[in-house]
Design a protein that fits this description.
Layout lengths: L55 H19 L8 H7 L7 E3 L6 E4 L15 E4 L6 H5 L12 E5 L6 H11 L8 E5 L9 E4 L6 E5 L4 E2 L11 E4 L5 E2 L2 E3 L6 E6 L3 E3 L5 E3 L4 E6 L3 E3 L16 E6 L2 E3 L11 E6 L3 E3 L11 E6 L3 E3 L11 E6 L3 E3 L17 E6 L3 E3 L11 E6 L2 E3 L11 E6 L3 E3 L13 E4 L2 E3 L11 E6 L3 E3 L11 E6 L3 E3 L14 E4 L2 E3 L16 E4 L2 E4 L19 E4 L1
Parallel strand pairs: 4-5, 5-7, 6-9, 7-10, 8-11, 9-12, 11-14, 12-15, 13-16, 15-17, 16-18, 17-19, 18-20, 19-21, 20-22, 21-23, 22-24, 23-25, 24-26, 25-27, 26-28, 27-29, 28-30, 29-31, 30-32, 31-33, 32-34, 33-35, 34-36, 35-37, 36-38, 37-39, 38-40, 40-41
Antiparallel strand pairs: 1-2, 2-3
Length: 596
């Protein structure tokens, strides 16, 4: 029996006739129909028994709604995204297609229960132009061709015995020039014991999928082999989530000017080695992908590694790595904005040897050594990030942020609280932590050493187990910082450091409020160091302090331990300075001088 195309609806039913708009809910009291019940029980009850006959206008209204929709569809109309509909149905299903606000672009949902508007939040949608090719392919992005229309499905093992033979067949039979998309589908329960290696070609029209929610790798897969490896070519698209189960050397490797595309919600987790490795001029697009639980075999491996290459992995997850979470090295760049690198055994996010990482709004909480590690000219942007509870109480190099040997870290407005050693350790590097929360450190809020430069204005380093800020031969700019309730000093400037702590608070600290030692210079203008437990509100020990308009009184009345000089110290005070002096004002002694 053949089926022919029906005739077109030119005029919707009752377009010019009497009709009622159909409400969401029927009203049994009036006998009006609604979408929830249609005609309710009252319309099916005899009139003499109190029933209400159906309204002809409701019939017309219902048929008008239906035929009007059918006419739009027969005319080639495509539905647009509707937030209210998405909420009502629990999100668009995977594979659903909607028309963009420009009236041209088609979007296809890549995930189930998708409530994101593709025009403003396209991460979980595939973008298709009028020729049914992805925007990546049509604009040359990464050199990929990724059609949303599947032309061929090659099943493993029904059609081909393993993944490599299936990909080789798809590549030789269906070149990208034929505009074909080929899905290599791994059938349920099939044991994948070998991966895929491709080189010197364009395999980007091939997508690897699996029938199960995730592909479980068996114990027979060699830990020295990669799941996907591409060299000097465009690799196949990874369109499923793979659980490496402690096997697999690298989940997806792109080497030597290769390109890789991994779809949202997909990736390779629990690898023996690294999850995603991109090296030597290669590029990878991996937004909202999954590479968690990497490095199960030990060694310096990562969830994501960009080595002299480029990786865009915004929103990706690399948490629970047994070594590094996400890193860029040797001049590589990694976009890891809003990514998650929590509970990594060593570093959450790392940039080394000139590597650059943009981790704006990312997370690196509870990491074993450092949440953020910039080493040897590494650059990391961690603005608005969160790296709490990082470090090891017994490791003086540990904490939320470590920057060393000419590195740069921007962590403005970041949450770096409750580090297990220090929030920031800087060695010959530049760190910006303005407006950051570094409170509750086991030892130091900020530990700046070796000619470092730290900007920490209006930040919080209160409650440190030692000093809130310790500068050793470094420059720290921390006006209006909160360094209250620290066990030692609120702020310490040591070994020819320069610290600007104007307007700062270092109240109720244990050893003292602020100290300048060994040729250091400390600006404490307008600061408040009252309530210290041992006096020493302002203590210049072979150093210089500007105490203009400072409140530096430990108790209820001035005491000689409030503002102190020792071994040639120098303090400049004025009439607005509150607190007792350790010696007569404007007198030179062996301990120094207090100008007032």
């Amino acid at each position: 029996m053949s089926v022919s195309e029906p005739g077109k609806i030119i005029t919707p039913w009752a377009e010019s006739g009497l009709k009622n708009p159909i409400p969401p809910a029927a009203n049994p009291a009036t006998g009006r129909a609604g979408f929830d019940q249609g005609f309710s029980a009252i319309n099916m009850t005899a009139k003499e028994a109190g029933g209400i006959p159906p309204f002809g206008q409701d019939f017309n209204g219902i048929f008008y709604e239906v035929t009007n929709i059918l006419r739009y569809m027969q005319a080639g109309g495509q539905p647009t995204f509707d937030a209210a509909l998405a909420t009502a149905i629990g999100g668009y299903p995977k594979g659903a297609m909607v028309l963009g606000s420009d009236g041209v672009t088609l979007w296809q949902s890549q995930v189930v229960s998708n409530s994101d508007d593709p025009d403003s939040s396209p991460a979980n949608w595939g973008k298709v132009d009028v020729n049914l090719k992805s925007q990546l392919g049509s604009t040359g992005g990464f050199g990929l061709v990724f059609s949303e229309i599947v032309d061929v499905v090659v099943k493993v093992p029904s059609d081909k015995p393993n993944l490599q033979s299936a990909v080789d067949f798809a590549h030789h039979q269906y070149k990208t020039s034929s505009s074909s998309k080929v899905v290599v589908s791994i059938e349920s329960t099939f044991q994948v014991e070998t991966g895929v290696f491709v080189r010197n070609g364009d395999y980007s029209n091939i997508e690897i999928q699996c029938e199960d929610s995730e592909l479980l790798i068996p114990a027979t897969f060699p830990v020295s082999s990669d799941f996907i490896s591409v060299e000097n070519g465009a690799g196949p698209v990874l369109g499923c989530l793979v659980n490496a189960n402690g096997r697999v050397g690298v989940g997806y490797r792109a080497d030597n000017r290769a390109t890789a595309f991994i779809k949202p919600g997909c990736g390779v987790k629990n690898t023996y080695g690294s999850g995603l490795v991109v090296r030597y001029g290669s590029l990878a697009y991996a937004h909202n992908t999954i590479w968690t639980g990497a490095a199960q075999g030990g060694g310096q491996t990562s969830g994501i590694l960009s080595w002299a290459a480029g990786v865009s992995a915004e929103g990706a997850m690399v948490s629970n790595s047994l070594h590094y979470g996400a890193q860029s090295a040797h001049g590589g760049w990694l976009s890891f904005r809003a990514g998650k690198a929590n509970n990594c055994s060593r570093y959450g996010i790392r940039a080394t040897d000139g590597g650059i990482v943009d981790a704006d709004g990312a997370e690196a909480n509870e990491c074993g050594l450092n949440g953020i590690r910039a080493f040897n000219l590494g650059i990391i942007n961690f603005r608005d990030g969160k790296a709490t509870g990082c470090g090891d109480n017994s490791d003086a190099a540990s904490g939320s942020i470590s920057a060393s040997y000419g590195s740069i870290v921007n962590a403005v407005s970041a949450d770096l609280s409750l580090p297990k050693y220090q929030a920031v350790i800087a060695l010959n590097s530049t760190v910006t932590v303005t407006l950051a929360n570094m409170s509750g450190a086991y030892r130091f809020g900020i530990n700046a050493q070796g000619a470092s430069n730290v900007a920490a204005g209006s930040s919080d380093v209160s409650g440190a187990g030692a000093s809130g800020i310790q500068a050793i031969g470094s420059v720290v700019h921390c006006p209006n910082v909160n360094a209250n309730n620290c066990a030692a000093y609120g702020i310490s400037a040591l070994d020819a450091s320069v610290v600007n702590a104007s307007g700062a608070q270092a109240k109720s600290c244990g050893t003292g409020g602020m100290t300048s030692r060994d040729g250091s210079t400390l600006n404490a203008k307008g600061s408040d160091t009252s309530g210290t437990l041992a006096g020493n509100c302002l203590f210049a020990w072979s150093g210089t302090i500007n105490a203009t308009d400072a409140i530096a009184q430990a108790g209820g009345s001035p005491a000689s331990t409030d503002i102190r000089v020792f071994e040639g110290g120098e303090i400049s005070a004025n009439a607005g300075t509150v607190g007792g002096l350790s010696q007569a004002a404007n007198a030179v002694t062996a301990n120094g001088i207090i100008f007032k």
